[in-house]
Amino acid sequence: MQKLLDGIVKFREGDFESHKELFKLLKEGQKPHTLFISCSDSRIDPNMITGTLPGELFIIRNIANIVPPYRETAEYVATTSAIEYAVLNLGVENIIVCGHSNCGGCAACLKPFDFLEQLPHTKKWLELSNSVRDRILSEVHDDKPEIREWMMEQGNVVEQLKHLLSYPYIKERVLAEQLKISGWHYIIETGEIFIYDKESGEFLLANGRV
Ligand SMILES: [Zn+2]
Questions:
Q1: Cα of 139 to ligand 1 centre, how many Å?
Q2: Ligand 1 center to residue 134 CA distance, Å?
Q3: What is the 27 CA–ligand 1 centroid distance (Å)?
Q4: 94 FRET partner, CA 20 to 30 A, in 25, 30, 170, 209?
Q5: Alpha carbon of 152 to ligand 1 centroid (Å)
Q6: CB-based contact 157:65 (threshold 8 Å)
Q7: Are 182 and 195 in contact (CB under 8 A)?
Q8: Strand spans (E) along the chain
Q9: Tens-place pLDDT, residues 69-95
Q10: The model's pTM
């Protein structure tokens, strides 16, 4: 805890001071250009890896960067309501689904059925990626666990892009070219990001161009 308390003071005296004008402006409200959906994993820093500042990314984080398919429900839905707010109220121009290497959530999907018995809510949440898991398990041999995990992480991102399009207001905006959706795979140890290319069906190294 002490590290966090020291950090608060360090922030106020350092980064806050050097971005004082920006924070004054942000007091008036937010107009983020991008909804960024990433894993809760502590090794991902959406602002750092995209070179963005406070006010630019509206961020949703959950285990394995999953987007539940659209449905009307009376439950308390965190991810779904944040998507709704970002698109309908804030009018974001982009939605990024950002998976990552060595994702514990994706690895858990590939484990035996009783693996998450002690974490019932996590287990339930990861069911949303069952169709990807079934495909990967049938396509990739179990003597290549790293390839299986890598494909699970990338396949999971593509699946969430499909789920995004099940939201009527997202589909409508994508078709009208008012909203872009993109799937990314971030590699922790190299800092590289591979972006899903719909034409080839592959993830290609981001090189700074659209
Ligand atoms: Zn993860």
A1: 22
A2: 19
A3: 32
A4: 25
A5: 11
A6: yes
A7: yes
A8: 34-39, 57-62, 94-100, 180-186, 193-197, 202-205
A9: 999 999 999 999 999 999 999 999 999
A10: 0.95
